[in-house]
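Reopening closed ticket. The problem is back. First fold of the pair:
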Amino acid sequence: VVRLLGWPVLVVPGIEADDAIGTLSRRAAAQGHRVLISTGDKDLAQLVTPQVTLINTMAKPPEVLDEAGVMAKFGVPPDRIVDYLTLVGDTVDNVPGVEKVGPKTAAKWIAEHGSLDGVIAAAASIKGAVGDNLRQALDWLPTGRRLITVVTDCDLAGHVPGWPALDGLALRAVDRPALLDFFQRHGFRT
């Protein structure tokens, strides 16, 4: 953990940023904290629970996604976002979905069949070109699901002092020597 202006910055080599965020949010929620994740990344909507909310401050006006907000925006609850994104794809993370399956079709299929597994089980009965595209993607879907799923159980013991407690991430005064060292190591010049 490095502190920038008193705020903890977690630098975790070998762990995806989304996975570190997922692990920290799950741990904090389990310890009774309310968690607010500032992001525009839709795949993090899978982390939303009654204790975890997303806010996209880059949207005008800022967009807040609690459980109802995820349902309103995507047409599926947070626990089905992985299924939804597996079907539609996630261009930001370069994960292709099922060709010609958009948000409305994915949400409809999940509502009808309960989950991605239900959609896969019903693939033979889904008609038309979109059904053909689904059947052609069946071998890919487990890989897509794995790529879209945010890991929430990373071992952060080597990166967060006192892990699994979160005290090492508490806001503190600026540690100027550590801040200067961080800037030098990471090529900040001004």
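Second fold of the pair, where the issue appears:
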Amino acid sequence: RYPVSEITLFIPLGTPTSDIFRQLAADGVVRFPWFAEAYYRVARSATPLQAGEYRFEQPTPLSRVIDRMSRGDVVRHVIIVPEGLTAEETFALFWSRGISRPQAFRNAFRNPQLVSSIGGATDLEGFLFPDTYAVTRSTSARQIVELMLANFRKHFTSELREKARANG
């Protein structure tokens, strides 16, 4: 019997099934990649495996591995964005955890469609709402910026807008 420990692995979108099972075997999640792939192709191929970051015990029963990967039961990263950070500092919280890349955040931050959605803003500085966000490694920078803007809109009530106008 193997000692039980956890392994986290990332399966990129488009990874061939045989490569998925080879990676699972190399990381000690399953014992025999050829058997795992054969079982999957014969008995479970109607349930496609989803890309993403997964955390498994070593070893994990093959049926449980396939169930989790077919559900897309991926690791979620909780990122706490405190008040008072600049956009660059906010984005660093995400990319320091391996979620997207600095340039992708900068591109989303400058995206004319997102900026114009704020109405009158020249950029998104100050509109990325501080909160706790649960995201995956597959969540794009644009999706994260859109989440933060939606959260801003939700909390920036008409009463607060009126106070802002009154204060110039």
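Update: turned out to be a display glitch only; the data is intact. Residues 129 and 154 are 10 Å apart (CA to CA). Strands lie at 5-11, 52-58, 77-80, 132-135. Please close again.
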